[in-house]
Design brief:
Layout: H1 2-22, H2 24-27, H3 35-55, H4 62-81, H5 89-110, H6 118-140, H7 145-150, H8 152-173, H9 175-180, E1 184-185, E2 188-189, H10 190-216
Antiparallel strand pairs: 1-2
Length: 217
């Protein structure tokens, strides 16, 4: 079950990366063009990490420690570029710079970049969740329903983000407990299964968003 869930996750991620590349011209209007580069890179990073874990038996936290600040920068760039976000741009820049500063200080003076840091993972989720909430606030402030409908593809991206990161943050808080008691459902370990399931949902939302971009372009 655990292996099947992993392949479903990788398939969903690959599908979203392929759609982002194939529909790249359509993503420009919705400020999602950066996904054309980001998602293939994430897929490559996940393949590399899987090889280290399952083949070479030598996993490393380095890959995810690069992915954390990268994901914050990517989502900051997306939401900063959206015209209706003009009220929140300074907040987005401030939050992003604060996070990157903490990351640099942490890797230089506190914990090695080759070691996992749960606090930076939690902070990453908080930052991206804030960006998504700011976007929804911007949508709610729109006067015209036609404008709200136009931003529907990005709304789906935001739905994926708002479900994924808070749930992951909660699961991280209970990770040690789940590991200690080896909690499982349906044959897979919860501390591994929850991130996979949430990732499948999020990348599924991304794929649907890219399809909407193509359909409405």
């Amino acid at each position: 079950m655990e292996r099947a869930l992993f392949f479903i996750y990788m398939g969903t991620l690959l599908l979203s990366a392929i759609l982002a590349v194939v529909y790249r011209k359509s993503l420009v209007r919705w400020c999602l063009i950066i996904m054309t580069f980001y998602l293939p890179l994430v897929f490559i990073m996940e393949v590399y990490q899987a090889l280290r874990l399952y083949i070479w038996k030598n996993p490393t936290a380095f890959v995810y420690n690069i992915y954390k600040p990268l994901s914050v920068v990517v989502f900051a760039a997306i939401y900063y570029s959206v015209p209706i976000m003009f009220r929140f741009r300074k907040l987005i820049v401030g939050i992003t710079l604060a996070y990157l500063t903490v990351v640099v200080i942490n890797y230089l003076f506190i914990v090695s970049i080759f070691q996992n840091n749960t606090y930076l993972t939690l902070a990453r989720g908080i930052c991206i969740t804030f960006f998504a909430v700011f976007f929804l606030m911007g949508v709610f402030l729109l006067d015209k329903s036609a404008e709200e409908k136009f931003w529907q593809p990005l709304i789906w991206v935001t739905i994926g983000v708002l479900i994924f990161y808070p749930v992951i943050s909660i699961s991280l808080g209970f990770e040690e407990y789940l590991r200690h008691y080896n909690a499982t459902i349906g044959g897979f370990k919860l501390y591994q299964g929850i991130p996979r399931l949430m990732s499948i949902f999020m990348y599924g939302c991304f794929s649907y968003a890219f399809y909407l971009c193509k359909k409405r372009s």
